Amino acid sequence: MSIVESIYQENSRRLPLTENMRTRDTISLRESLASRHRSGLIPVIGEFKRSSPSGFKLAQGISMTQYMNRLADLKVAGISVLTEPKHFLGSYSDLKEAQVYKLPLLAKDFISSEQMVQSSYNAGADAILLIADFLPKQDIKRLTDYAGKLGMETLVEFHDPTFLGNYDACDTCLLGYNRRNLVTMRIEDKTASVIKQMKKIHSPMILESGLTYGKIDPHLIEEFDGFLIGTSLLNAPEAIR
Q: What is the C-alpha separation between 71 and 234, in angstroms, rounded?
């Protein structure tokens, strides 16, 4: 069993966040990405995480507050915050604190229930992540609809193009291609072959994993509507200690 499959099995034992900790209305990630594009900026979603099964560990001395300030200075389109506690050492508290930056917040987690969608909303999320490789089509539709009712958007990501059939475009959705195989945790870049398939679906397209801030291929900038970048930003020397 893969780590991700284990996380989904453990979800039922996670404590929900029942108190509404929101300090503001939801902010559209789709519009923020489009606004950066119109301004001639590369539309980046900067990610904050403390650990990852792929081998990443947050270096000592990096302050979340300083890092978030740096992301704001870089004029990112949004911030992704890992909230899975066991394998990524994330928490809803990190998401709650990030609301102060007035940027759209993506709850990066392995969401599989309305309760987890609600917890993300209560912590301040403006968008949630759903993974098409691990969730049936009916669950993606159900959770996307529930998030939409709360005013949130949904980034539906896939790694294996076989699972693109689990996704239906909607006005509150974005489609992400994650170049990391979440079973092996290795980068497997199929970008060239999946772009045409993604374009047929007519959703904002996000490229994830294995990206270095400031070194994105100009061709990819033309093709995608946004880029989710974590490790290279967190490992940058100015990171922002």
A: 10
* Contact between residue 148 and residue 127 where contact means Cβ atoms under 8 Å apart: no
Q: Which long-range contacts (CB under 8 A, 24 or more apart) does 215-223 make?
A: 216/42, 220/191, 221/42, 223/195
The structural domains of the chain, with segments of one domain joined by +, span 3-12+31-234
- For residue 74, give the amino acid letter: L
pLDDT tens track for 30-82: 999 999 999 999 999 999 999 999 888 988 878 899 899 999 999 999 999 99
Q: Which CATH architecture has domain 3-12+31-234?
A: Alpha-Beta Barrel (3.20)
Dihedral sign computed on CA atoms, order 205, 210, 216, 219: negative
Give yes or no for residue 241 having a pLDDT over 60: no
Which residues are CB-contacts of 145 (< 8 A; sequence separation ≥ 6)? Answer: none
Residues 6+ apart with CB under 8 A from 63: 240, 241
Give the pLDDT confidence of 70-122 residue by residue, as tens digits. Answer: 999 999 999 999 999 999 999 999 999 999 999 999 999 999 999 999 999 99
140-176: buried (b, 16+ CB within 10 Å) or exposed (e) per residue? bbebbebbeebebbbbbbbbeeebbebbeeeebbbbb
Helix, strand, coil content of the chain in percent (nearest 5): 35, 20, 45
